Amino acid sequence: MAAAIKAINAKIRSNKVLDYVCSTHFWGPVSNFGIPVAAVMDTQKDPEIISGTMTGALTIYSATFMRYALAVSPANYLLFGCHLVNFSAQATQGYRYLSYWNWGGREAQLAAKGAQTGKEATEAGA
């Protein structure tokens, strides 16, 4: 049995593509891609639910690991891409958070809802 496993491993390692797909250089970033996918999907949700603390932490995390992905030998461009997507999504979320809570977005949204409610009440009464 051990000889068969060694033969299969030698066959995999002799093929560059299979060798890469069977490595942690591939499966680490692939398993990590859930974070940026979730972050991109969250950009469509209401900005009121964004956690500024978590967004900041994830932005720093992604920036750090983008650097790490290029510092290892050989450089892991798939991991770099994963963290680049996450960094971009977190930066977008950070902008949305600041826009909503610090730059008047919340007040504008509440005013728009109030105007819409007033318009509906006026139309219903007419």
From TrEMBL:
Function summary: Mediates the uptake of pyruvate into mitochondria.
Pfam families named in the record: MPC (PF03650)
Family: Belongs to the mitochondrial pyruvate carrier (MPC) (TC 2.A.105) family.
Entry keyword DNA-binding: no
Major place of residence: mitochondrion
Keyword entries, A-Z: Membrane, Mitochondrion, Mitochondrion inner membrane, Pyruvate, Transmembrane, Transmembrane helix, Transport
Protein's UniProt name: Mitochondrial pyruvate carrier
Membrane topology: Multi-pass membrane protein
GO biological process, one term: pyruvate import into mitochondria
GO cellular component, one term: mitochondrial inner membrane
Keyword Transmembrane helix: yes
InterPro entries in the cross-refs: MPC
Compartments reported by the entry: Mitochondrion inner membrane
Domain of life: Eukaryota
